[in-house]
């Protein structure tokens, strides 16, 4: 997912314009010193603008990740519920702490699809397959047809990924949560690869 975004960000509109003008000059369709200088200035300005904005986005994401990791486990559960509830037509509520039966958040889609969400606040560790086992078991308890495990940490163990794939459980990382926040802020539907329609 991150690779796909990077490829889309590689060429800014200014860079495309610069390459187009450079192509005209190289192929001799238009040879003018002012055009060459103008294209150079536009290209250089566009490259600087692109680098500054990329640095700002990276810095904002780092700050957001630090903010996320500074939350307590309960605050992280409430945050996940709030992000899902902010999506158009979605409802989400955090369950009651220690007696949650493996689901920390129960979400309901606009089409009334119930989703059980297990939240793991592990800023530095990968989530193991126990979390996947727990959310699979909680689907029946909460009458959910979908299940998600979300972590604030670096990712999941290979065993967790294999078990999730075998049971149709979606695994989210911080990037997925940030993506949902962006969708919610823009009042756009959740991406289907993260939540059902």
UniProtKB/TrEMBL annotation:
InterPro entries, sorted: Restrct_endonuc-II-like, Restrct_endonuc_IV_Mrr, tRNA_endonuc-like_dom_sf, Type_IV_Methyl-Rstrct_Enzyme
Naturally occurring in which organism (per UniProt): Deinococcus oregonensis
Transmembrane regions listed in the UniProt entry: 12-29, 35-52
Top-level taxon of the source organism: Bacteria
One Pfam family named in its UniProt record: Mrr_cat
Coiled coil: none
Domain Restriction endonuclease type IV Mrr: 68-180
Molecular function per GO: endonuclease activity
This protein's name: Restriction endonuclease
């Amino acid at each position: 997912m991150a690779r796909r975004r990077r490829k889309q960000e590689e060429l800014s509109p200014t860079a495309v314009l610069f390459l187009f003008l450079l192509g005209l000059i190289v192929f001799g369709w238009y040879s003018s010193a002012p055009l060459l200088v103008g294209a150079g200035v536009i290209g250089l300005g566009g490259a600087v603008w692109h680098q500054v904005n990329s640095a700002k986005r990276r810095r904002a994401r780092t700050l957001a990740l630090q903010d996320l990791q500074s939350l307590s486990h309960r605050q992280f559960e409430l945050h996940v519920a709030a992000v899902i509830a902010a999506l158009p037509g979605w409802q989400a509520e955090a369950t009651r702490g220690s007696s949650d039966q493996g689901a920390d958040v129960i979400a309901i889609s606009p089409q009334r699809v119930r989703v059980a969400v297990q939240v793991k606040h592990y800023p530095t560790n990968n989530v193991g397959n126990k979390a996947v086992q727990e959310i699979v078991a909680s689907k029946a308890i909460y009458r959910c047809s979908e299940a998600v495990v979300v972590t604030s940490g670096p990712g999941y163990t290979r065993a967790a990924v294999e078990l999730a794939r075998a049971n149709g459980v979606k695994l989210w990382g911080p990037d997925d949560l940030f993506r949902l926040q962006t969708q919610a802020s823009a009042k756009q539907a959740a991406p289907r690869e993260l939540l059902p329609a």
